[in-house]
């Protein structure tokens, strides 16, 4: 029993090294994409966002949105769902628990 | 590798504002639910004590009845 534990403890540095080697390139690709796609908007982009939202509203009022193809509608629906999921991730962070409120 | 997509500012603001709203909502809801849960636990404790007291009395009563029956049926 003690020998098995000793052997396991001796293997931990190699395991950690292997994990780091495995994850480094994947982290690099993740960072490569996240640095452009997942960053919060700079203050200069917020007016553009507001104007984009107003364009959306005008399109809805003018009925242009009724002309979207099913493919575009599905794509936009997926994007909207992803945006909504960030709300739930924020809620997880706010309640400091993965599942349910820990009261 | 595919070059990263330039995400529209509307989507970026929507995402991060949803994240912040979610954090605030989670914090507020947690602070709301915590005292309610403590109140419920306290009430449960008190009711449990009352119930156990009643059970104890009922048990003592039952034992006394059994003893009386025994004495009546086979007196020494």
From TrEMBL, chain A:
Subcellular location: Mitochondrion membrane
GO CC entries: mitochondrial membrane; proton-transporting ATP synthase complex
GO BP: proton motive force-driven ATP synthesis
GO molecular function terms attached to this record: proton transmembrane transporter activity
Keywords: ATP synthesis, CF(0), Hydrogen ion transport, Ion transport, Membrane, Mitochondrion, Transport
Main location: mitochondrion
Similarity comment: Belongs to the ATPase g subunit family.
Protein name according to UniProt: ATP synthase subunit g
Organism: Sinocyclocheilus grahami (Dianchi golden-line fish)
Lineage: Eukaryota, Metazoa, Chordata, Craniata, Vertebrata
Automatic annotation (TrEMBL), chain B:
Coiled-coil residue windows: 36-71
Pfam families found in the cross-reference section: ATP-synt_E
GO biological process: proton motive force-driven ATP synthesis
UniProt-annotated location(s): Mitochondrion inner membrane
Gene Ontology MF term list: proton transmembrane transporter activity
Tagged with keyword Mitochondrion: yes
UniProt key word Disulfide bond: no
Source superkingdom: Eukaryota
GO CC entries: mitochondrial inner membrane; proton-transporting ATP synthase complex
Location (main, coarse): mitochondrion
Keywords: Acetylation, ATP synthesis, CF(0), Coiled coil, Hydrogen ion transport, Ion transport, Membrane, Mitochondrion, Mitochondrion inner membrane, Transport
PANTHER family with a match to the protein in the record: ATP SYNTHASE E CHAIN, MITOCHONDRIAL, ATP SYNTHASE SUBUNIT E, MITOCHONDRIAL
Family: Belongs to the ATPase e subunit family.
Protein task: Subunit e, of the mitochondrial membrane ATP synthase complex (F(1)F(0) ATP synthase or Complex V) that produces ATP from ADP in the presence of a proton gradient across the membrane which is generated by electron transport complexes of the respiratory chain. ATP synthase complex consist of a soluble F(1) head domain - the catalytic core - and a membrane F(1) domain - the membrane proton channel. These two domains are linked by a central stalk rotating inside the F(1) region and a stationary peripheral stalk.
Quaternary structure note: Component of the ATP synthase complex composed at least of ATP5F1A/subunit alpha, ATP5F1B/subunit beta, ATP5MC1/subunit c (homooctomer), MT-ATP6/subunit a, MT-ATP8/subunit 8, ATP5ME/subunit e, ATP5MF/subunit f, ATP5MG/subunit g, ATP5MK/subunit k, ATP5MJ/subunit j, ATP5F1C/subunit gamma, ATP5F1D/subunit delta, ATP5F1E/subunit epsilon, ATP5PF/subunit F6, ATP5PB/subunit b, ATP5PD/subunit d, ATP5PO/subunit OSCP. F-type ATPases have 2 components, CF(1) - the catalytic core - and CF(0) - the membrane proton channel. CF(1) and CF(0) have multiple subunits.
UniProt protein name: ATP synthase F(0) complex subunit e, mitochondrial
Lineage of producing organism: Eukaryota, Metazoa, Chordata, Craniata, Vertebrata
